[in-house]
Design goal:
three-stranded antiparallel sheet; seven-stranded parallel sheet; binds 2-amino-2-deoxy-6-O-phosphono-alpha-D-glucopyranose; Rossmann fold
Length: 246
């Protein structure tokens, strides 16, 4: 586990964008796993600027997102489809057919989970998966108690997640109660992982991730077992970690 400590959100975002850019330039990453939430917004902003500055074409790239809310169509303003369109896809030249997310409005969500898992397999797996972390240690939408051997599946969101994500909805009561998420095993199969964390509200989860006992009670602890994970976190997010990180 490689941990990079940075001063604040801006530094985290810039460093994270540079990390991804270099791997895109040298074609180490052809299938990029993407995350949503507030944390990666700054990274996407920096990445777009860097891609434009380099004149880099991403017409060959495939992206796969971690998750999507059940019941929200792609054009719903609160869907992760729409989020990705706004913060990244419309600013770069990735073909729309190459940008994949689970369909939250699929008629048969069980079948949709299988389709998505199969798709990742057909693409040859994820080269680099970007992750944020929930305050309760969730990754993707794998809430506490999720099985470490889980593949893409339908999940019930924890009350604390529904509350935390309410801030992105006009009416916080409209946060869907379920989502489709890549499973923990799907995430762990990624060849490399970049996890971002900023702010004191993530400090408990980051302490567990780095120093806690590996347990399904805190999904992110499974990442201790990943052979190629980099964490970029700011001082606040690392404030409860005992071991010295420079
Ligand atoms: C959401 C997403 C996660 C994300 C997490 C943290 O529930 N499904 O992928 O990492 O919450 O979100 P934020 O970055 O807004 O704190």
């Amino acid at each position: 586990m490689k941990i990079m400590k940075v001063e604040n959100y801006q530094n985290m975002s810039e460093k994270g964008a540079q990390f991804i850019l270099e791997k895109l330039i040298n074609r180490e990453v052809n299938v990029l796993g993407l995350a949503t939430g507030g944390t990666p917004v700054g990274l996407y902003e920096h990445l777009i600027k860097k891609i434009h500055n380099k004149g880099l074409s991403l017409s060959h790239l495939h992206t796969v997102n971690l998750d999507e809310y059940i019941g929200l169509a792609a054009d719903d303003p609160n869907s992760y489809h729409q989020y990705m369109e706004d913060v990244l896809f419309k600013h770069i030249d990735i073909p729309s057919n190459n940008a994949h997310l689970p369909h939250g409005d699929a008629e048969n969500v069980t079948y949709e989970c299988e389709r998505y898992e199969q798709l990742i397999h057909q693409l040859g797996g994820v080269d680099l998966q970007l992750l944020g972390i929930g305050n309760n240690g969730h990754i993707g939408f794998n809430e506490p108690g999720s099985p470490f051997d889980g593949r893409t599946m339908v999940v019930d969101l924890a009350p604390s997640t529904i509350e935390a994500n309410g801030r992105y909805f006009k009416d916080p009561n409209n946060v869907p109660r379920q989502a489709i998420t890549m499973g923990i095993k799907t995430i762990m199969d990624s060849k490399s992982i970049l996890l971002l964390a900023s702010g004191v509200e993530k400090a408990e989860a980051i302490k567990e991730l780095i120093e806690g006992e590996v347990s399904e009670k805190t999904p992110a602890t499974v990442l201790q077992k990943h052979p190629n994970i980099t964490i970029i976190a700011d001082e606040e997010a690392l404030s409860l970690v005992n071991k010295t990180i420079v």
